[in-house]
Each structure stands twice: as structure tokens, then as C-alpha cells.
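Case study.
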Amino acid sequence: MDLDTLLSFKWSVMAPEFIILGVATLLSVIDLFMKKESSRTPLAWLAGAGVIGALAAIFMQLDTEVTSILFDTYRLDSFSKAFKILLLLGTLLVLVLASNDKKEDVEENRGEFYYLLLAALLGAMMMASSADLITLFVGLELLSLSSYIMAGLERQNKRSNESAFKYVVSGGIATAITLFGMSYVFGLTGETNLFLIAQTMQDPELLKHSFLLMFAFLITFAGLTFKIAAAPLHMWAPDVYEGAPVPVTAFLSVVSKTAGFVILLRFIIITFIAAPGIDSESLLLEVQPYVMALAAATMIIGNVTALRQRNIKRMFAYSSIAQAGYILVPFVSNSSLLFELIWFYLLAYLFMNIGAFTIIQVLSVQEKSNDISIFRGLFKRSPWLAVPMTFFLLSLAGIPITAGFVGKFGIFMGALGLEPAHYWLAAVMMATTLVSYVYYFNVIAVMFFRDSERTRVSVPRGMAAVLAFCAVSTILLGIMPDLALDFFYGNFDINEFFMNIEAVDTHTHDH
Amino acid sequence: MNAWLLSILIFSPLLGVLVLMFVPSSDEKSIKWLGVLGTLFPLGIALVVLSAFKMGGDELQLTEKFSWISYEVFQSKGQVSYPIFYEIGVNGLSMVLILLTAVVSVLAAIASFSIKQNWKSYFILFFLLEMGMLGVFAAQNLFLFFIFFEITLIPMFFLIGRWGYLEREKAAYSFLIYNGVGSAILLIVFVALFMKTGTMNFQELAYTFSLPQAELNQLFITKGFKMGMLIALLVAFAVKLPVFPLHSWMVRVHVQAPPAIVMIHSGILLKIGAYGVIVFGAGMFPDQFKSLAFVIGLFGVINLLYGAFLALTQTDVKRVLAYSSVSHMGIVLIGLAAGNTSGMTGAVFQVVSHGLISALLFFLIGALYERSGSSELSAFGGVAKRMPILAGVFLAGGLASLGLPGMSGFISEFMAFLGLFEKMPVLAAVGTLGLILTAVYVLRAVLSITFGAEKEMPESRDLSSSERVPAFVLLAAILFIGIYPAWLNDMLRPTLDAILLGLGG
Amino acid sequence: MLQMSWLIPLFPLLSFILLLLFRKSKSESTAWIGVLLTGISLVMSIGVFLAVWQGEGIKTEGTWFQMGERAITMGFEVNPLNALMLVIVSLVSFLVHLYSKGYMHGDDRFPVFFAYLGLFSFAMLGLVLSPNLLQLYMFWELVGLGSFLLIGFYYFKPEAKAAAKKAFVMTRIGDVGLFIGMVLLFWQVGSFEYDEIFASVKNGDLSSGMLTLTALCIFVGAVGKSGQLPLHTWLPDAMEGPTPVSALIHAATMVAAGVYLVAAMYPLFQASEAALTVVAVVGGLTAIFAASIGLMQKDIKRVLAYSTVSQLGYMMLALGASGYVAGIFHLTTHAFFKALLFLAAGSVIHAVHTQNIEEMGGLWKKLRITGPLFLIGALAISGVPLLSGFFSKDEILASTYADGKYGLFWLAVIAAFMTAFYMFRLFFIVFTGEARGETEKGVHESPGVMTFPMIVLGVLAVVAGYLNTTWFGTFLSDYLAQGAVELPHGDHHGPAWIPLVATLAAALGIALAYLIYQRGTLSRDWITRSLPSLSDVIYNKWYIDEGYDQTVVKGTRGLSKLGVLFDRYIVDGLVTAVTTGVQRLGRVGSRVQNGQVQSYGTAAIFGIVILLLIVALTGGYFS
Amino acid sequence: MSAVPLPAYLMLALILFCIGLFGALTKRNAVIVLISIELMLNAVNINLVAFAKYSLNPGLTGQIFSLFTITVAAAEAAVGLAILIALYRNRKTVNVDEMDTMKR
Amino acid sequence: MTGEMIAFFLLALTAITGGVLLINLTNVVHMVVALIFTFIAIAGIYITLSAEFVAVVQVLIYSGAITIIMLFGIMLTRHQEKEKKAPRLKIILTGLTIGLFFLIMYGKIKDLNFGQQNVELHVENTKKIGVELYSHYVIPFELTSVLLLVALIGSIILAKRDDDEKEAKK
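After joint prediction, the assembly is written out as follows.
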């Protein structure tokens, strides 16, 4: 392959990634030359501009056909576009949330945060737009490494240190496990291109090793649950969420989680769609009960343990575990609605969770605490914080006229849509949702039913904007979910996801 | 105008919310009056709707239908879409319930004058609650029904938890979790039905399920599936109704919530359960419903007797009334179990009648509580002396509650039992024991408050003029239905006939 | 005239509404509203009665509401039976209104009392005019309401409160029986109309078991309202109400409604021999049982109350023994003389302000009008010849004998003896001898508004008997024969010795009372001493109330308490168990979260291994 | 063909993986925990390289994959160590089981 | 038994021994040193698998770079040299779980054989790898450079001494 061939690829489709990469580099250089005392807020604006630029680039690509560069190591299809929008949007909101962070001891690391955030975003975006095991892995690690560092950015804060260390150890083990599983997936097929893997999976030779395949699947899957904070690799989340700075927690719980689902979808669906199961059924059908069990366990652990939390960030960590469990449900059901359901739920989740974290941030900065009691009497002190917070909590709990409800409704559609319908999974989800009412409404009760002498809360303008945007979106998507669904259906053809344009025509075994 | 009429009605309480937003929260007086005005407005529109409603005409009227949400699914068969529409309409049954909602809301708003704090947020939530209730009865598909159903949940949670009595928060959670269980089951059932049939519209669903089994098999709808769905629905609505043994939340709410809210709750919200059983249970799965009739009847009788027995020895008048509600909801079940014209009519009449009666009684309890600061029976005595009007209305309400002829309670009890006697005479005969017990506990409660030696109370003024309005309006309505039931009956008949046609009775 | 008869009940209703509006008025002239309006009713009733006497009748109905295919109707019907009842009710009601004007003088809720009277009269007249069972049932309950309100008129008295409640609940028990019977009939016949029910009965559409069942259910209703055994306990307690109320409701009208009901449904009863027998037995037992209690009571009104129960038992006995006319006849005469007795008793109470007969005495001289009137009443009820009671009681005895119910016949005779005894015991203690207690002073005769009604009733108590006599003509039975009911045996002219026996029993009773209470020949506590336990039982009303208290009331309350416990510990307990279970689970979850990152890893590996193990075990790993 | 069979390599990898895992989960010194994770990644590399030679589609890909893995592992070790040092400055400990201020 | 076989066994034995020593030694520095043997042995294994380039990288990065920074880490953190054993129960439980994992995997690995092998891997191994890296895998390769940059910057930020900054602030 010579330079001409390399240059013949349509590199322009990578524009969003290039923009992010460029801005990240620029930021690091600027940061290097900026005076230590000067505020890093301009960096935030620059980073934000970069994200918006990348978003714009993606919107301009909406009509672009499926494009593949270098044997799907980069791939632009509807799936990647749809989910990259989520990632970018999430990062943008986290940026605004962080830019207004007035906590002094973080100030000194402000600059690094921005370009680390962008680097993490870059990794996530690469995960969204690749169909090659190696790229996926490197993207995943880029995201992970940046996250480890971000979690530990508050160097003087013991909790931040500890959370970062826990994160890096858990993450390291998870990476090893994932890779161990992937190594078998790779080994049994000898390919790294997902489509080729899928093709090779149909090889009758592999029928003999269906057990190993199943093991590989389960190990890889379990390893990847680390990113989405689902069982069995969920336990890091509460500690890390608690210790990390709030913007990082928001990032972890939204963008990083979204990226986790992206890689799960990409890797699992494409790779195993044609794989044989142990009893010669489809492997994906055969693993359903196990994934279901994991989803159920995740929902139960997350919701039940959240009941006992007094620390709001920790509570949201468990909540986020539970939410991961919910999103795993359509994944289990293999419904044809899979992509839009997950996409929609993640979109809803993005708004409600970032919105909630914005308020947590405001309050925890003011009160110097993360205890639930910081919400005491919020309705009296600042109704304009209490009301949106209520919407976010209701949405998380899945109560109508919020986006969270429509998302959950969709998940149920997925779970009950195919024959045989997964009634018990739906029942577990509903039962745990009920349990979740208790702790979500507990926060609401604290805001509305308790009184407090504390003073009013002042909200920085940028955060207020994030808040308003998230609240409006949460409600709007709850009332008119078609806004998002039509956008999805109108611009994304999910068949592209399965379209192997590269491998069939041009792949040559050049070794 | 007519095309939008119903939507205007449903969302008309929002106008109140909007107006209240601009009133300073310290301006108690204007907020309270706006609170009443804000409910009068929907009442006015409800009356317009009533006038536009053709009695005994087509089954569904004033319908509206817009495309709302559309999921597109690619299956092997090709593209199948799962559209969700915004579709509303009224038939006789929902018209009656909408009217009841509008009326009771106004009266409850008046009764809310006794609220001591945070009037603004109180009334905003109150309006949202009213919107939810109106929507529940106007909804013509499962999705919309569920949404409005849940919308009623949230304001109620706040209203109980913030403005209730001492153990209000526990009551609020109790309310939330129990009703959450109900709505959780509902959601699963609704989605399951949706995914099997591709529609959420009540009528289309009813039509689909009435298809011959051979066609249904192609949709993977077995008899077992239908039965399972029906049972789940019944359980879900049993929570709301509530049916023994799922009633304890309701008692708690009735005791702890502010009186005006209990008026709404007992008067209307409980009725959603009955409405649901009628529309979904009997309306969509008539065959299965019939085969479950005995169980439903049994639970009806158990409810009736259990509530009555427990009401006998309660020392708190609110608890007496709460258990009395349990008991009276048993009559709804009894009527439904009968599944014949009289039974159905009785059930629906009981829905309306109990709505009015319990609203009246709780209103009076609220007035008494405000004066005495207690709701213990032992705290009262000889109220008739200083407050003859209150005592008189209270007695009248009690008599209505125990089914005195000439009042609405009689018609419903009579019809329900009449129906059940045709189908299950022995069960019905056992049930009539409840009529005696009802008399015992109602008189015990009413008499120990109004009769006997007078006891000291901090305040002993009779009903003020603003308090008389709700009391007399409700009493008049109770008497009107009791004396001239034909009006209500004519309105309900087409709807009930349609359901009865399915039940084959 | 007949077309207007539906207005008859409405005048009292109007009175009720008007008086409620004037409820705060202090003026006692408000009473005239009630008197006037019931007077109009009375006049109309008499007009209607006369028209019916001439053989007319009417039945008009309209749809009340439509129940599916079936129309539930409301309307009114005038037939001989209810025309007679109309007159009785409106007459007694009118007289009681008048009487109350004097009796209630000075009460601060004067208009309310008259309002309640109006409500009651409305309900009673409506009941009588009902052309179908459902309508009857509705008014039946409203009558109960009126009675309840009036018994509890002195609401501040705990006894009145208890009595009102008891009256309502006890009659409600009966009502439920009526309800069941009515509903069962409906599903058998398809209608609540008397006509249609009778037609079906005649056609033999109902099985005999069903006939008996429905008849008995309806009879239970009558038992409740008419204070028959075993639901009679409320009636004596109901004497807590003002005395005119007792005269109106608990002597003349409402309690007679049970008898009326059986009479109105007579074709149904006729079709079931068993039902008739039950009616007769219950009636006969009630007659003697209540009379026995009446022997020992010390409260003037209670004596009269038990007397009423006893007489109602007579009527039931008559109906049960196919003595349709006899029953109605006794109902009529009883209405007059019992109302008279009550009003006279009221007059006495009004004068001496006590109801305890042991504190009275020698009133004959002081109450110059009341005394003789009371004597007339006592003579009439005792069955002294030529007064109304004699004729009607004679007919009952005759028909019982003719029906072959000899045991009941002799029971009735003994009851007659007892009646005479306790009435004259009462008379002698109250009116003769010396004044006892502190009641001498200020005793004066009642005003004219009170004595006038008594005089009217006194006259009627004498002459009403001639409505149906062997000697002058059987006007009443001829008249009733126009009605729907086919009279059973025509008239009963049993053996000629029956009147003699009856007279003898009455004479014996009077004589015995005379000997004990006037002459003192026999010591007063003669019976008490000779049969202490029996007299104790009788004095305590056979311990029926206590028995109910110990069994039914305590049982119900116990069940209720049990229910409360069940509700708290089982129903709520389950919920608590679930919630604590979830919370425990949460605690376990958070304990696992021990902050050790290595434990997290171990847990994860453990999870994965479990998954792999399950796959291995279920997938045939070892094969 | 008498070459070393594929299962032998896989077994070696598995053993090393398990040892690494055990070390990562039980060793108290944080540095050793980090280095144990490196050992696990090494085990994966053995798998990858072995599969590069023996597989349905043997080729260089496995070796390239392992190169990426090595790089990533190195980066991870560096970052992990940096975090550890930051932590050590504040807490003066490298004992993993003392790092449990956040729990429950 | 061919020479390849013997070489494999020796290398494997060394690797595993290193691993076991890692587990069992108490001196932290000794542990790291033990692991150096493992890393080098693994490099040898790579050579038997015709992956010369990877083997070289292995030696450079693992036996060299990583081990050194780990040793530096140990020095920097001035720990007590002796490592205390973890609680027995924890060791047993973890050991059992991992043992089970091993057994399950072992059962299906032991007869995994595709019956073919690539014999040309060692031919121009490094060059071919280079070509592949710079053509086929250029995107992940570049991404890796970002990753390394992030790791570099991140490590510097995190490990930077605070006193410098505090002084700078003053």
C-alpha cells in the first residue's frame, strides 16, 4: 500500500475527529504558555468551540454515505454519526458545567482538564466510528487513560487520589479481562475486522469450539461492562464517582457510559450476529439469559444499594449503575428497535443526568459537602433549582412527560416486543424502578418537605444555561419524543451498521 | 371549536398555573380566589362539553386524533410501524366522570381555604392534579391514559407529603409505592398489548381481542395471554380501587392528607381504578372477565365486609371513613362481577355516588378538624348543638353513605346487589350483611360526633358561608341522583350497553 | 280525587321543607304549618277513602329509570287496603301534630320537631301509596329515618342516641331481609310490581321453595319494622323519643307497616303454607312474650311499648292464620286505642314530669279528661266487649281457631288475659290510690290542643270496632274484598264460645289487677316472692338485650378488633416485610461495597466464573 | 509436524493470566498490584502472538495487535504509577487495603 | 522432542516460576526482579512463535522500561520493604475463584487446534510489521500516539511535586 492509496481515502470524513484532535493539541500548547495565575476559562470556551465545530461537521456529514477508511479501521456510518452526536453533546455540556467550576483547588489544573476531556472524547468517538478490534481497543484505552487522569486531577484531595487509583486498578483489570476475551475472539477467527470476524464465525470449523466462543463472548462482555458500570464490573463506580470532581463524575456517568454502550453494540452485535451457539442455535440467542441475568443483577444492585446512600454523588453512582441495567434490557432482547431505543434512552439520560449533576455541582460547591442534606429546603431557597432538579429526578425515575419515561417505555417495547416476550425481565425492571422511586423521591422530599435556614443559591450563568437546556430537553423529549425519533429515523439508516462495504470487495489477505 | 374542545378542557387547569405564576406567593387572598377561579374555568368548559355531548348518541364523541410518536420497526415481514397517537374522546361514562372531576375540583378548591401555608405551590399542584384526572378520563389510548394516570400521581405525592398531617411523608411514600406498583403493572401490560397488536387505541384493541382465536393465534395472542393480561390489569387497578389486601395505603392517605385533597382522592382518584376495570377489564377481555366474575365478586364481598368490620371499632373518624371507602369500593366490584345491566349500572353509580358522598364527608371532617384540632371520635360530642348545619349535613352524608333511599348511595347499592343476586345469589346474600354493618359504623361515627353530651372545642362556629357552598352543592347532587337517577343513567347507557354487549349480558 | 292522591304525601314533605327553613324561628306558631298541611292530607285521604269505598281504584306509574330493557317504575296506587291505611296514617299524624303543639311547648327546637314529623308522615304516606315493592322499600327506609330522627330528637341524651341507633340498626336488619326478598322476587318475576308478582304467583311461575324463601325474607322485613320476636328490642327503647312520637310511630303507623307489608304481599304468603305458619307462630309467640314483659315494667311508656309489640304479634298471628281481615281490623282499632293510650300517657307525663309509674298515683282526680280517656283505651285494648278491641281481637281468635292453630289460639287467650292485667295494673297504679313521690304539686290537666286529639281518638277507640261485627255488618271485610287479595275464608265466625273466652280472659285480668293494685287483697310482690327467678327474668325482659350484647354485639366487635389486628400485623406486616427485605438487601449491597478495590475485582471475577460455570453446566461442557 | 502445539501456548498464557490476576487481587503493595496487571496483559499478548501463528487465518495481525497492547500497557503503568505517587504524597501509604475511605 | 519444544518448556518454566515468585516473595523489590525473568522468558516465547519484533519490543518495554519505572515507583514511595500477607480467607477465596476460572478455560483450550500454522511469519518480520503499521493500521497507530501523549502529560501533572506549585503561587 503506497502513499497514493493512502491518500486516496476520503480522509475528510474524519473531520470531527481531526477537529477535536487539533483543538486538544492547541489547548495543550496554549496551556503550556499561559501564565499560571491566569484563568483557564478561555480554554473552556475554545474547547467548547471545538466540540461545537465537531458537531457541526457531523451534521454536515448527515447525508454522507457509508464510508470506510483502511479496512474499517475508521468507519463513518449512521451508527457512528448518531452516537457521536450524543458523545459530543454530552462533552459540550460537561465543558460548560466545568467552566463555571469556581473551586479554587481545581483551578490550577483547569487547563489540563480541558484537553484531557477532549482526548477522552476523541477515544470515545473513535470507538463509535470503527469496526476494527484494534482501533476499538486503542480508542477504549484512550478514553480510559484520560478518565483515570481526570479522576485524579484534584491532587491535594485524598478522595480524588483514591478514586483515581481505584479507577486505574479496576480499569486495568477490566482491560486485561476484556483483552483476554478479545484475544480468543481474534484467535478463533484470526481477524480484527469485525465484519471479517463475523464472516469467519460461520466457518463450520468453529462449531467445534463453540464453548470457547461462548466463553470469549462472556469474558469480553463482562470486561466491557466496566465502562458502562454494569454487573459484574460495576463496583468501582460508587467510589470513583464519589471521589472524582463533579464534572468528571458527570463525564464518567454520561459520556463514558455512552461510549461503553457504543463499543458493546459495535463489537457484540456485528461480531456475534452470525456466530454459532453451543447447541447450534445462534450464539446471540443463547447468551440472552446470561445477559438478562446481568442486566437484572445490575438493576437490582444499583437500585437497592442506592437506598442507603446519604452521599448524593454516591447515590447517583448507584443510580447510574441501575440505569446501565435498564439500557442493557433492549440489548438483551435483540429487538429490531435496539438502536433507536438505546440511542433515545442515552439521549434522555444525558440530559437528565448532566442536569442533575449541574445542580449537585452548584450545591456541593456552595455547601462544601456532598451529603443529601445540601438539598434541604431547596424549593424555598431556590425554586428555580428545585423545580428542574425535580424534573431530572422524575425523569430518572421514569415518570411521564419526561424523556426518561419515553425511554423506559421504549425499553419495555424492546423487552416485550419479540416472541417470546421477556416478562420477567420487564418485571424486574419495573420492580427495581419502584425501589428507585424511594431514593429519587427522597431527594425530592428533602427539597420540598424539609426546611432549612440556608441562604439562597447563586448559579453561574453558564450553568444556568446548561440547566435550562437540560430541563427543557428533558420535558420536551417527554412530550414530543418524535423530535428525537424523527431526527433519528430521518437521518440515520441503521442498516448501514451491518453493511460491510469494505471487507467483501477490497479485503485482501496481504500477509 | 368543537374539534379542540376536549383538549381545551383537559389542559384548561394549566391556565390557572400560568396565572398563579405571576402572583406573588405572599398574596394569600388572591391566590385562594384564583385557586377557585382556576377550577371554575375547567368546570365551565366541562359544562360546554356536556352541552356539546349528545346524550345517547354515538358512542365516542368529540374525538381528537393526532399522530404523536412513531416507532418504525423493520421485521422480516417488512416495515411495521408502532404509531402512538394523541387521541381523546368522551363517551357517557367518561363524560360523567369528567363532570364529577370538574365539580369536585371546584369544591375541593373551596375547601382548600383552610390550607395554612404555601398556597401558591399548593394550587399549582392542585391544577396539575386536576389536569391529570381530566386527562385520564378523556384518554382514548393506553399510552395517554398511562401518562395522565401518572401525572395524577406526582402532584398527589407532594400534596400529601407537604400539606398533610403529622405522618404525611410516610403516607406520601405509601401512596407513591403502592400506586407505583399499580402503574408498573399497567405499563407492562400496556406495552405488551401494544407490541402484540400494534395499536393502543381502546376500541381497536377491543376489536382485535374480539377476533376469532384462529386469527389471534397469528398475532401470538393466546387465551392464556389474554387471561394473564386481564389478571394483571385487575391487580393493577385493584391497588388503585383499592381492593383488600392492597388497601392499607389508602387508609394512610385518607388519614394523613389534607381534607381537600382527600376529597379529590377519595372522590375521584379511587374511581380511576373502577374506570380502568370497566374500560380495560370488562371492555377488552369480556370472556375472560366473565370467567373471573366469581373471584371478582368474592373480592367485592370481602372488601365490603372487611372494610365494614374494620370501620366498626376505629377511634379516628378519618379511619372510619377510610375503611368505609374500602367497603364501598367493594360494591363497585360486586356490580362489576354481576356483569349484567343492573350490576354495571350499580357499579358506575357507585363510582359517582361514592365520589360525591366521600367528598362531602371528608369536607366536613376537614371543617371539624379545623375547629377542634382533632379527628378522634372521643374528642367530639353534641356537635349538633352549636353547629346544627354542620351536624345536619354530616348526618345526611352519613345516611347517604349507608344507602338511604332518596340518596345516591341507595341506587348504586341496590343496583349492584340486584345484579349480583341474579348471578350469585348466595354470595350476594352474604354481602348484604355489609349493609347492616355499614349502618352500624356510620351511625356510630356520626352519632358520636353530633349527638350526645356536648364537649368543649376550641372553636365552635357553624359552617361559614364559603363552607356551605361545597356542602350544599354536594348534598344537592347526592339527592338529585338519588331521586332522579334517570339523568345519569341515560348518559351512561350507550357506553354500558356496549360493554354489556361484549359481556353478553 | 283519586288522580290527585299522589299529593297526599307531598303536603307533609312541604311541611318538612318549610319548617327546616324556619328552623331558627322561636315562634311556636310554626307548628300550625305542620298541622295545616297534614290536615290537608287528612282531608284528601278521607276523600280518597270514600272514593275507594265506592269501589274505585287507581294505579298510575311512570318510568323512574331504564335498566337495560326493563323499566324501573315509580307511581302510586290506591286500593282498599292502602286507602284505609291512608286514613289511619293521616288521621293519627294530624292528631299527633296537634297534640305536639301543646306537648312540645317550650322546646328550643320546636320547628325541627314538626319538620321531622312532617318527614315521617311523608314517608309513611308514600309507603302506603307505593304500587311496587321497590318504592315501598325506599319509603320503608325513609320511615325508618323519620323514626330515627324523632327517637333521637333529644340528641344530647345518651339514651336517646343509643335508642335511635338501635332502632335504625335493628330495623335495618329486617330491611335487609326485605331487600333480599324483593330482589329475589325481581329475578323470579322480572318486576317489582305487586300486580305482576301476584300474577306470577298465581300462574305458579315460582317454585314452592322460592315462594317460601321470598315470603320469609319479606317477613323478616316486617319483623324488623313491627318489632316482632326476635328483633323487637328496639321498640321499647324507642320510647326515648317524645311521647307524641311514640303515639304516632311506635304505636299507630310505622310499626304497623310490617303488618301492612304482609297484608299487601298477602297473595305471596297465601301461596306458601310454611310462610304463613311461620308468620303465625312468630306473631303468637311475640304476643305472649311481649305481654309477659309488660307485666312487670315500671315505665309507663315501656308498658305501652310492650303492649304494642304484643298487639302487633296479634296482628301477625291473624295474618298467619289466614285472618287477613282480622289482622287489618286489629291494625285499625289498635291504631286508635294505642295512639290514645300513648297520648294519654303523654298527658300524664306532661303533668307529672316522670315516666316511672311508682312515682304516680291518684291522678284520676287531677286529670279529669285524661283519666277517663285512658280508661277507655285500657278497656278497648283489654278486649272488653262493645269497645273496638273486643271485636278485632275476637276476630283474630276466631280465625286462629278456624285455621286449626289451637296452640296459638290458647297462647293468644293467655296473652289477652295478660294484656288486661298489665293495662289495668297500669291504670290502677297511676290513676287510683294516693299520690306518691314528689309529683303532687303543679299537676294540671293538659291544654286543649292536647286533649282534643285524645277525645277524637277516644271516640274512635270506642266506635271503630263496629266496622266489622257479626251483628251490625262486615263493612270492613266487604270493603277489603274489593282489593287484589282474595280473602281466605270469608269471615270467621268460629264457635260462639270464643268471644266468651276472650271476655272472660279480659275480665280475669282486670279483676286480678283490681285485687292486687286497687284493693290490695293480694300483695303486690306476691308473684315476685313466689317465683323470684321467673319474675327476675321477666323483669329483665328475658335478658334478650343482654343476650344480644353478649353474642352478636360482642362477637361483631371482637371480629372487628381481630380485623384491626389482622390489618396491622398481617396486611401491613407483609408490606413491611417486603420493604425491610429490600432494605436488608440494600444493606448487604452496601456492605459488599467495602471500599477495597481488590474485593471489587474479586467480586467481578467471581461473577464471571459463575457465568462460565453455568454455561459449562447447562451447555454440556463435559460431553 | 512436531512444533509446539497451540494449546501449550494458550495454557502458558492462561497460567500467567491467572497468576497476574491473583497478584492483582491479593497483593497489598500498590506497585505490585500494578505490575500484576502488566503480567495479565502479557499473558494476553502470548495469546495474540500464538494465535498469529496458529489460527484459521494466521497472519501478522496478531503480532501487531500485541504491539498495541504493549504500548497501551506501558502507558497505563505510567499513569497508574503517577496516580499512586500522588496518592502516596497525601496518604503516605501504598497499601491497597488502606485505601478505603470511600465505601458503603 | 524437538529443540523448539525444549526451548518452550524452559521458557515457560521460567515465566511461570517468575510469576510464582511474584506471588510468594515478601520483598517488593525481589518481586519485581522475579518478574523481569518472566518478561524475558515471554520474549523468548515470542521468538519461538516467530515474532522477533514483538520479542524485542517486549524486552525493551517490559523488562526495561516498565520494570524500571516500577522500581522507581517503589523507591519513590519509600514503603517498608516487607510486604504483609493479605488475610488468609481473602487469599483462599480469590484463589479458589481463579482456580475455577483456570479449570473451566483449561478444559476447552487443551484441544484447540486448527491444524495449520503460518510458517512465513519470521520472514522479514519487522519490515512487514512496519508496512502494516503504517498503512493498514495507521489510524490506531496515530491514535496510540495521542494516547501516549495523554499518558505523558497526565503522568507529569499527577506526579508533579506540589511544593513547586505552592511556591509558584506565593
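Observations recorded in class. Strands of chain A lie at 67-69, 74-76. Residues 503-511 of chain A have pLDDT under 50 and may be disordered. We will return to this complex in the next lecture.
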